[in-house]
Amino acid sequence: MRHNLIDFLRELIQKRRNILLLALLVCILGLGAVLGIRFQGIPRELNKLIITGHEKLKTEEIVRMLEIQPGTSFDTLDLDLLEKKLSRHPRVASVRITKKSEDQLLIELTERKSSYIVNSEGHLYEIDSDLHVLSKDDVREKDLCILSGNFPIKNGTIQDASFRDLYTSVEQAFRMYPALKPRISEVLLQEDGEIFFFADEPVPLRIQVGTLLHKDQIRKLYAVLAYFEKDKIRSELVDIRGEDAVYH
Fold it and tell me: Sign of dihedral through CA atoms 67, 68, 74, 75?
C-alpha cells in the first residue's frame, strides 16, 4: 500500500513537471512569435552604399544624384528609379544597383571615357569617341588633345560636319603615327578652314597644314616634328602646305 502511494505521488509530480515544461515551451514560442511580428513591422533603414567603377565622378556627387536622405527606408527603395537618376548623367555609360544585404546597396557604374577636349565659343567640353559631351567647363581627364574652333553643340553632342571631318582626320593622324598623340597639344580649325597643329614638347611648334589633312600631310607633319626635335630647332611657325616645309 505504501509503495503504491509513493508511485502515485511520483507519477503525479512527473505529470505536473511535464505540464509545466510544456506550458513554458508554449510561452517561449508565443513570445518569440510576438517579437518576430514586432521586429518585422519595424522598417529597415539604408545604412551603407557600396559604389564601384567611378573614376571621374566623386562619391558625394553620386549620393547627391540619388537623392537619398539619412534614414531612408531600405525596404521601399525603387532600384529602377535610382538607376534612371544616375543614367541621366552624361559621364555614366551604364549602371546597375542591387541590394547587397539587409541594409546595403551595391552600385556598379561604368563611365564613358573622354577622348578629346573641345574648345568652342569660350567653353571647354570633354567628349567621348561617339562625340557625346561628357562635361562643360569641368575637365577631369588630363593630357587630352584640344580640338579648337566654333562648333555648334546640340542635345549633348557635336553635330557639326566640319568638326566630324576634323575629328576623323586627327584620329587618322594619331593612328598612322602614335608618337604624334603625346606631342600634339591642340589642333585648331579656323573660320577660313585652315588647320593648325600645336606641339608643346619636346619642341614648341605651330604647324600650318592647310585645309585638308590627308595622308601626305600627316607624313610631312610627322617628318617635320622629328626633324625639329632632332636638331632642336626653334621656330614660331612651320608651313607645310606646299611641297617643302617653310619655317619662320
Answer: negative
Contact indicator for 72, 99 with CB cutoff of 8 Å:
no
Residues 114-239, CATH architecture:
3-Layer(aba) Sandwich (3.40)
Tens place of pLDDT for every residue, the chain, 248 residues? 544 545 544 554 565 566 655 565 556 665 555 455 444 555 577 778 899 999 999 999 999 999 887 667 777 788 899 999 999 999 999 999 998 877 788 999 999 999 999 999 999 999 999 999 999 999 999 899 999 999 998 888 998 899 999 999 999 999 999 999 999 999 999 999 999 999 987 788 999 999 999 999 999 999 999 988 888 888 889 999 987 778 77
CB within 8 Å of 131: residues ≥ 6 apart: 157, 158, 159, 163, 164, 167
Rounded Cα distance between 132 and 110, Å, is: 15
Ranges of CATH 3.40.50.10960 domains, the chain = 114-239
User: Where in the sequence of the chain do the CATH 3.10.20.310 domains occur?
Assistant: 48-111
Q: Which CATH architecture has domain 48-111?
A: Roll (3.10)
Residues 6+ apart with CB under 8 A from 14: none
- Sign of the four-CA dihedral 240, 242, 245, 247: negative
